[in-house]
Amino acid sequence: MNQVRRLTQSGECLENGRDSDLVIPIMGPTGSGKSSFIRALLNDLASPGPEVSNGINSCTSVVQHYFFEPKSKSLQAKINGRRVVLVDTPGFDDTNASDLEILRRIAVWLTASYGGQMKVAGIIYIYPIFPGRYTHNDRTNVKVFKKLCGNNGIKWVTFATSRWDQEEAIEALEGKGVFTTREGQLHSHWKDMLASGATSGRLAKTNSPRGKYSAHSLLEEVITKGLENKAKEDEFAGVMVALQEQIVKKKRNLPKTAAARELKKKLDVLMREYNSLGDNETVRQKTRAIVGQLDELKISLGGRIKLFLLGNS
Ligand SMILES: Nc1nc2c(ncn2[C@@H]2O[C@H](COP(=O)(O)OP(=O)(O)OP(=O)(O)O)[C@@H](O)[C@H]2O)c(=O)[nH]1
Ligand SMILES: [Mg+2]
């Protein structure tokens, strides 16, 4: 638990968790719509929701949980008095915090809440269907996410694409079926996880429980799937994600977890990219930030590269 205690110094966690809680972390890149999804669920219940930003900078900086009490009778019947805990997370590629810091904040919440015994009922990964390209960074972020979940966690994952409310407007400009085509392309990027039991869904920015791609129906699907993954008949199983299990049960330090090792690979590639851009102040700043993270992850860099990067500072 030392690792957990050390981690909690830099982050939030949920105190007084109940075994019966249905915990659902919401993950995905910065700006993908994680906080908007939670707001859409909470707004019509007049609860204070997470902050959402339409600026260019990342918005959510700490992991924060919200309790959701469904109005829908069918969902109420399914959860049968349990609390639904939605966990908003900051996305990788954040404007203000490094990927390693983001991973640390997520690890803190997952390991420190529920005395390290927390089991999630589902994990939602939100990615915007439009605009933008599926970049190398997007691919590596999903790889880190996959390692964070671990093999056991994959069947609890739902990939949700956001921004489906823009489909009609964009089709008018770019032709019929453009969103469906993009969705198919995303599914092919996620095919391994989809083949291993992850599912997918669509989201639109709406507060209406009856909206076409409503946050409510997606959440209901996720909870239904989570409750169906039973340990024994009539017993909710839940899953401990790999990141949590490796820190709590296997007592690994964060840098030794599979997710952090995957993150190292991403940083290595970024480092090579910046190195090839030549020597200027922006490149030096970016590479210094990456070197800091790699150092923390105990990557041994060739002395020559380090000298090249830091020698000019
Ligand atoms: N049209 C449309 N806009 C959306 C949708 N989801 C999110 N947005 C907008 O996208 C922007 C970013 O949304 P956020 O919910 O703050 O994204 P986030 O994933 O929480 O971002 P970080 O907190 O920075 O990690 C805001 O302007 C939202 O209004 C959607 O489904 N449709
Ligand atoms: Mg947010």
From TrEMBL:
Give the InterPro entries listed for this entry. GTP-bd, P-loop_NTPase
Record domain G: where: 25-93
Superkingdom: Eukaryota
Q: Which Pfam families match?
A: MMR_HSR1 (PF01926)
Name a GO molecular-function annotation: GTP binding
The name under which this protein is listed is: G domain-containing protein
Q: Which organism is it from?
A: Coprinopsis marcescibilis
The major lineage groups are: Eukaryota, Fungi, Dikarya, Basidiomycota, Agaricomycotina
